[in-house]
Design a protein that fits this description.
Helices cover 38% and strands 18% of the residues. The protein has helices at residues 12-17, 24-39, 41-44, 48-91, 146-162, 166-188, 277-280, 292-300, 307-322, and strands spanning 98-99, 102-109, 120-127, 130-138, 206-213, 219-224, 230-233, 236-239, 261-263, 271-275, 330-337. The radius of gyration is 28 Å and the shape is elongated. The chain has a six-stranded antiparallel sheet. It has a five-stranded antiparallel sheet with strand order 3-4-5-6-9, with helices on one face.
Length: 365
């Protein structure tokens, strides 16, 4: 049986020299310029013409070195950004525009410059138990809470399909967050004798809102310290509930009984607007809070607004109100009941991320 040739591999020493490739030509110019200065008889002569020629040669070499370094840094920065963007899209996957008869849109604004994700999280999946939605806010902002975001989202994507009861989904999230907190706290502040570690990470918690939307429009909710969503119908925007939520997940153990709160039915054409507290807590230069409810009601006047357009309007109004200076991450999400239109219905999908590819909403720089 003939042997197949293995593909040629780049030697390790050549791979180590690859980042310095843009400097090869300027370095060669520099060596020639120094050699010319030391050995060429013309370069040893005094005179204005000689000085001008020498200055021109060294200026050319210096310019080449600067441009070579700059090109290398730009190329490396581009590669780092591409890798970071791919990782962020895996963590906070773009939502499908249609999900089992519902129109869905979402966006997140991170206070970390250049980041597409932060301490907020959201997800929506179609399951045999109904469309299940999660939105949450990990304590802190920026890139530090990403580990907790990954733990909660990963657990939800599995539990939403596996658990028939919404309460059991929440308990799975609590266990996943607890494991993440113990592991991180143990790495940062290991405790002797096998005791539970004590440290900043051991006090990490997350607000979570779980929704389950049935085919008849019935909405069940479990709320752990999160703002209630607004129900949008006609020109009105009002919270779906006024009951006090449970404590944030991780702050205290969940109670033994977790009855899901039955919200008002979501008829065709009406929508739910979900958000994290970074939206209503945002302030302008004079300290006034962002009036999210007024913005939603103003956007509802006139012709119906698609979910993505509504997200864009709130996004724009929020940045205008704060002058682009956010102090906390913000996640926005709209779920509209379009089940009266058969063209919007899609089957319940699996948790495979390859089935869900849409363009993410841009984040401000």
């Amino acid at each position: 049986m003939p042997r197949t040739r293995s593909p040629l591999r780049t030697p390790p020493w050549l791979r180590r020299l690859a980042p310095a490739a843009p400097l090869a030509l300027p370095a060669l110019w520099g060596a020639v310029a120094v050699l010319w200065k030391l050995t060429c008889p013309i370069a040893q002569q005094e005179g204005t013409a000689t000085r001008i020629a020498t200055s021109a040669v060294f200026l050319t070499v210096g310019t080449g070195l600067v441009l070579g370094v700059r090109c290398g840094l730009v190329r490396e920065l581009k590669q780092v950004r591409e890798v970071a963007l791919a990782a962020q899209r895996v963590l906070l996957r773009p939502l499908p525009p249609r999900l089992d008869g519902l129109s869905v849109a979402a966006a997140q604004l991170s206070v970390s410059r250049g980041a597409a994700v932060g301490g907020d999280l959201y997800e929506a999946v179609a399951t045999p138990h109904g469309v299940r939605v999660v939105i949450g806010d990990v304590r802190g902002h920026g890139l530090a809470p990403l580990g907790a975001v990954a733990a909660v989202l990963g657990s939800f994507r599995e539990a939403a399909h596996d658990e028939p009861e919404l309460a059991d989904v929440l308990r799975r999230l609590e266990r996943a967050l607890g494991r993440h907190v113990r592991e991180r706290a143990g790495e940062e502040h290991p405790a002797p004798g096998g005791r539970d570690p004590q440290g900043p990470s051991a006090e990490e918690f997350v607000t979570v809102l779980l929704l389950e939307i049935h085919p008849d429009g019935a909405v069940l909710a479990l709320n752990c310290g999160h703002p209630w969503p607004y129900r949008l119908g006609g020109a009105r925007a009002e919270p779906v509930a006024d009951t006090a939520p449970l404590p944030p997940l991780g702050a205290f153990p969940l109670p033994d009984e977790l009855p899901a709160h039955r919200c008002a039915t979501l008829p065709p054409g009406e929508a739910l607007f979900l958000h994290t507290d970074g939206a209503e807590d945002a302030r302008d230069a004079s300290g006034r809070f962002f009036r999210l409810q007024d913005v939603l009601e103003e956007a509802q006047r006139g012709a119906p607004v698609p979910p993505a357009a509504l997200i864009h309007r709130v996004h724009t109004a929020l940045l205008r109100h704060t002058g682009g200076r956010l102090t906390d991450d913000v996640a926005l999400m709209v779920v509209r009941n379009d089940r009266g239109d058969d063209r919007s219905r899609v089957p319940a999908q699996s948790a495979d991320p390859g089935l869900r590819r849409t363009r993410p909403a841009p984040s401000p720089r």
